[in-house]
Amino acid sequence: MKKNKFLKVAAVAILILATAVVTRIYTVKSILGTNENFGKVVLLEKYLKENYLYNKDIKEENLEAGILKGLVAGLEDPYSQYLTKDEMKKLSEQTTGKFQGVGVIISPAEDGSVTVVSPIKGSPADRAGVESGDKILKINGKDFSAEKIDQASKEMRGQAGTSVKILLLKKKNLKTEEVEIKREEIKIDSVLKNKIGDYGYIGITMFDEETGKDFKKVLQELTDDGVKGIVLDMRGNPGGVVDAAYEIGDAILPKTSFVTLKNNKGEVIEDYKTDDKYNDIKMVVLVNEGSASASEILAGAISDLDRAKIVGKKTYGKGVVQNVIALPEGDGLKLTTSEYFTPSGDSINKLGIEPDVEVDLPENIKGIGIDYQETDTQLQKALEILKEK
How far apart, in whole angstroms, are the C-alpha atoms of residue 356 and residue 135? Predict the structure, then answer.
C-alpha cells in the first residue's frame, strides 16, 4: 500500500490522455517500470518518514498534494495547477458566484509575486481600497509568493465576520500599506444595470454561469426603456466562463467568428460563431488593467468589428484558456490547453488590448462606476462619446 501512495501523479497524466479512470495498481506497473524518477519519489518518501525531525506530524495527504502540485508547477505556467478537493470546491464557488472571503481576484505575476487582478466590486477588499495591480506581500504576517498562490487564496478566505490582515505593495505609489479586512459572504452580482440620464449603464463584474442570461435580460429592459445608448463597463472584470462572454457577444455583435481557440498543434479546436440577429444599440466599452481573459475576448471582438469604441486603459493580457479536469477522488487539474484569437486573428496573450481612447483616472479617486460619476473620468468620456454619435 505504501508504494502506491504517491503514484497518483501518473494517474493524472493517464486520465488526461485516456479520459478514463485508471487504477493506482495499473499506474504503478506502467510508470515505475519505464521511468526511474517515479521510483525516486517512493525512496524519497521513505527517507522523509524515517529521518525528518518532525516525522510524527507528517500528513500523507499534504505530501501527496505537494508532489502533484510540483509536477504541474514544472510546466512553469502561472495558470496551470493541481487542485486539491478544497480548491476544486472553491473553483466551483467562483463559477456559481458565492463564497466567503474578502472578495479579491489574484494571479501569479512573472516577477514571482501575488498580484491583484481586481477586487470584486462592492466587496470588503474593494471598500478597503485594494486595487488592480497591487501586490500582496503578506497575509496575517505570513509571506506569500506566486508559487504559494493557492495558500494565499485559502488564507484570505474564511468564516464571515472574521478578519484578515493583508500587507500590500501599492501599484500607484510603490509604498507598502497594511489593511485589515473583515470577511463576508460574497455574492457576486455579475451584471449591474442602471441609467444615467438618457443612457443605459451595464457593468459586468465577472463571467459566471448566469452572466449571459442576465446580460440579455437587462439589455432588453434598457432597450425597452428607450435609452439612446449603453456604456458597457468591464473594468476590473477578471474573466470567468468563456461561454458567458460568447452569449453576450451573440447578443450585440453581427454574424462573425467571435473567437477561435487553437491547441498546441495550432489546430482550431473551437470556433465560436455569432448569428445575424443582434441588438445594434449604440455602445461604448470601458476596460482597464484589471480586465482579463473572457472580458478581453469580448472587448477584442467588439474592437475588431468596430462595434463600439473602447475607452480606458490597456487590458491585462491573458489570452490562454484552461480546462478543468475532475479526478476520481474529488481533486482536479487546471491546465492551459489552448490560446484564443480575436476575429481578426490576433492573439492578446501578454499583450492586452489597447483602448481606442486612453483615459487616466484621478490619483485620489475613491472608486469607479455608477456611484462615482463625478470623479470617474473614464465613465465621463464614455458618455461624451455616446452623445457625439
Answer: 28
- Name residue, grid cell 481557440: 261
Nearest-10 Cα torsion for 172, 357, 376, 242: -80
What is the model's pTM? 0.72
Residue range 188-388 in CATH 2.30.180.10: no
What's the CATH fold of domain 99-186? Pdz3 Domain (2.30.42)
Query: Which residues in the chain are classed under CATH 2.30.42.10?
Result: 99-186
Sorting pLDDT into bands at 50, 70 and 90, what band is 371?
confident
Spell out the SS3 assignment of 266-308.
CCEEEEEEECCCCCCCCEEEEECCCCCCHHHHHHHHHHHCCCC
pLDDT in tens, 245-265: 999 999 999 999 999 999 999
Task: Tell me what pLDDT residue 95 has.
Answer: 65
Catalytic residues, by residue number, are 293, 304, 318
Mean pLDDT of 369-378: 92
